[in-house]
Amino acid sequence: MIRLEPLAHQSADAIDGLLDAAFGTDRRGRTAYIIRLGMAWLTDLSFAALDADGAMVGLLQSWPVALHAPDGTQTALIMVGPVAVMPGVQNGGHGRALMDRLIETAAKVTDDPLMMIGDPGYYQRFWGFSADETDQWQAPGPFEAHRLLARQSHPDGAAIPCAGMLGPRQIAPATV
Ligand SMILES: CC(C)(COP(=O)(O)OP(=O)(O)OC[C@H]1O[C@@H](n2cnc3c(N)ncnc32)[C@H](O)[C@@H]1OP(=O)(O)O)[C@@H](O)C(=O)NCCC(=O)NCCS
Question: Is CB count within 10 Å lower at the N or C end of the chain?
Fold first, then answer.
């Protein structure tokens, strides 16, 4: 049985080590990293998968991002990923368990649409992410259009926005 727990229980070094093993050490130049530049990952939507000895063998992070329209308005989105599983245990159900937990939790805690850059053969097949509504989205780096995916967080959640540039979410300054 696959055990999941909040990713916040893991050290930054353990998280970096797993991401390096799954994606390579050059991963930080990827467009997904630029989209969420400067953001902190969302602790309530980020999870670790553990093996029988309690060692982390998979992880999923989520980030606050937005689609920025030309008129300066932004639509909040949750960027899902990276989803990473240790090479030695891939295809053992860890990725699916992590994504199932993300989808189940997001439906309870947010109305914001979910987005990701990922393989539709995996994320569309199991969780219904689709590139159908992202064809007018832009990103601050290269991406393959069929891998830019979105999904409502739940059936009554906010609609997927039509057009704009992906980037970090701008948080309004606090008023005193
Ligand atoms: C992609 C990843 C998260 C999947 O997690 P996992 O625990 O290995 O896979 P799961 O056990 O959850 O799912 C296995 C099923 O998904 C399929 N699958 C796995 N990765 C896939 C991919 N990138 N595209 C399409 N299908 C995929 C498998 O063929 C298998 O299908 P089956 O049940 O019909 O045999 C994991 O393999 C990983 O971290 N890979 C390295 C990073 C990477 O390549 N990411 C690319 C995806 S964005």
Answer: C
